[in-house]
Amino acid sequence: MSDKVASIRGMNDILPEHTRLWQWLEDRVREVLCGYGYGEIRMPVLEHTELFRRSIGEATDIVEKEMYSFADRNGDSLTLRPEGTAGCVRAAREHGLLHNQVQRLWYAGPMFRHERPQAGRYRQFHQIGVETFGMSGPDIDAELILMTARIWRALGLADHVRLELNSLGEPEDRGRYREALVAYLSRHRERLDDDSQRRLERNPLRILDTKDPGTREVLEDAPRLEEYLGDEAREHFRELCAMLDAAGLAYEVNPRLVRGLDYYGRTVFEWVTDALGAQGTVCAGGRYDGLVEQLGGRSTPAVGFAMGLERLVLLLEQNTPELPAPAELYIVAPGQSTAALLLAEELRNTLPGRRIVCHCGGGSFKSQMKKADRSGAHLALLLGEQELENDSVTVKPLRGDGPQEEVPRGQLGTRLAELLTPN
Ligand code: ATP
Ligand code: MG
């Protein structure tokens, strides 16, 4: 074994050259969520294992084989959260947020699943999730979907993702469908891939989601979930579709769309891209009216979604937005470090919000200018012997071909505000 300790497979460091894009993405999403009146909730990354067993479902991939669970020092079984919905429901119930009220919540943070790492699939990944409580009508389902569409527009990704939609009906509808599906698939058992054969007993609906060509062929003639929906679920779905139509939002009803978590019922949806290979789902969600009760609360309608930030970052890297440079102003002052620091402090007072880097650590004029250029700053501010004597600063454009000018200290703030693009 090497004497250096490395990171854990599938768990990535995100370095400053990348966090700029991450922050830009997170800021855009936050702006849209704020614009719809959603409030942020922050939950711990560790929860009792029991919470996920009872919500996500024993027979799901996540609970069967993907959770990072371990015994705490006192023997309690804890799990690093594999998703945010269960913890959000737990927190909302625990703090009385679900009692006779409507909630629109969002959260952001790392999730953990022991999956096979590959592009777009990691063991620590990040989601921004949204959960709403107390609203049973299709209007809130539509709001969530329209909100995600607005997020893609804000990110410049609207042309790169498409919406798939389905209804899973009520638990009883799914129960009857499940029987019919299992009966049908059992007759063709030998033609199913191994994974699907295994799922036939444990989690048969998930077979609909298979990528295996042989199994897909068998599924062609399988009974359709749609035919098992009760009147209420059918009407809820019809109204949702009508609302999306009225809003002019395109979607495709995918009767095979099921989710990997047991708590979903009625509406489910996914935003999918073709640009990321097999890891094409960038956002997924749906209705889970039964979950709050299942976790010990009162029956509460709920619908939510989560988007995978790593996949959105990969998409954005193919469609790069213009990002603000780390610096706007870079102060170059060979041999004048105190004066330079004070100038930087003064400018941070007069130009609040501007990104100002002061060269630290000395070095020649030439090497400082090189760093100024690499910082992405629009302007270098030169503070040498001559400027100190004249009580001035030389302003040198680093982008474009504007002239260099020596500006008296008293006018510096005003002049810089003119030269910089509005902030
Ligand atoms: P997939 O079918 O891709 O495994 P999922 O159905 O397990 O996704 P959800 O639990 O609904 O996904 O999570 C919502 C979103 O979080 C996904 O659409 C995806 O963008 C992202 N996501 C899920 N698992 C991972 C992972 N291991 N690495 C990176 N992103 C992930
Ligand atoms: Mg998964």
Q: Which features would summarize this protein structure in a list?
A:
elongated; 15 helices; 5-stranded mixed sheet; 8-stranded mixed sheet; BirA Bifunctional Protein, domain 2; 16 strands; alpha+beta; 39% helix; 2 domains; binds magnesium ion; 20% strand; binds adenosine-5'-triphosphate; single chain; 423 residues; Rossmann fold
Short description:
By secondary structure, the chain is an alpha+beta fold.
Descriptive report:
With 423 residues, the protein is α+β, with helices and mostly antiparallel strands. It has two domains: 16-169 and 229-318, 2-Layer Sandwich (BirA Bifunctional Protein, domain 2), CATH 3.30.930; 329-416, Rossmann fold (3-Layer(aba) Sandwich). The protein has 15 helices and 16 strands. It has an eight-stranded mixed β-sheet with strand order 1-5-6-11-10-9-7-8, with helices on both faces. Helix 5 (138-155) packs parallel to helix 9 (231-246). The longest helix is centred in the first third of the chain and has 20 residues, at 16-35. The mean pLDDT is 95.
